[in-house]
Amino acid sequence: MKKFTELKYLDMRSIRHQIFYFPEAKFRFESLCELKCDTSVDSSYFYGLAYLCQYIQRLIIINTNPSDYYGASKLIEVQKNLKYFEWKDDHCIYAPGPDKDSYKQILFSLEKSANIINHLSLNFMFIDRTS
Fold first, then answer.
1. Which terminus of the chain, N or C, has less C-beta within 10 A?
2. Predicted model pTM
């Protein structure tokens, strides 16, 4: 981490280590402008990033694992300069009904950034298995 004076872009999809615990991570991640990640990582990754990265301008999340989105929603919620956001479902998700809205946390977090987001792309896949 010492070799990088600042970090502008990070594709976290292939990283399985909690790199935000490395020494000097706070100073490196403060300057992060673009993050691409997926939901296959533990929710604690997103909480760690939310603590360190609050000025991300471009955030792309690939939903590969429909579980709890609280960590991802926290990362979205703390952003102070989010201009571009994409959410892409990468598989078919079974949602049990309208009272079990799996995207509720994500949408509430995005609502808080509605005044600053210039680009919003939501690609939800839904399969109704009631019939």
1. C
2. 0.83
